[in-house]
Amino acid sequence: MFHSALKTMRKLEQDHGVDSVAFEMLGPPRLSKLLYESYLLKVCFGDVRTVARTGTSILSRRLLDLIEADDQLRSQIISIGIPILLPDGRSLVRASTIKIPPAQGQDEFPINASSIDRWAHDGWVDLREKNMKHWRQRFTQIIKEVEGSRMMKRVPAPCITGSTGRISPRSIPGRSVAGSSRMRKRVNG
User: Fold this and answer.
1) Is the pTM above the cut of 0.85?
2) In Å, what is the CA distance from 123 to each residue of 24, 47, 72, 84, 153?
3) DSSP state of 91
4) Is 98 helix (H, G, I), strand (E, B) or coil?
5) 75-101 pLDDT tens trace
């Protein structure tokens, strides 16, 4: 079933000339918001390393430029009820329906810095610099984890064995034990 859905999605992408990023029925608005923000960063900057080393004001400005220039992309985002908070933190691009804040019988909501932060976190595409700072931190952490993972694969940690807490020569890859305690390099040929 997954492969069939993926095949259908790719065909729809080709037929309509758009990337599939998020759909209304995907799940909580926060998921769609994060997917769209990461997609915007990908379109503007290409990869996580570039985002991690680019200043927040540049990130924010380039995403705004994209949103202003690409009517179709902007429409895709807001049509699923995800508004776009512009870098000034006061302007919102939205459709007639928004998912956050949830109506729950209310027609009006108090608007203040705290409520804007909460709503932006929960389900608004947020182009403010402070959100770009969060993306830089996320991507920096991902880069560190990936690089750490690569290092662990290249240099496996030796095992500490026995009651003495000493490193066992048998546990060091590329090494073998000669006699009782001397080590010699194994020749890989």
Assistant:
1) no
2) 12, 23, 20, 9, 38
3) -
4) coil
5) 999 999 999 999 999 999 999 999 988
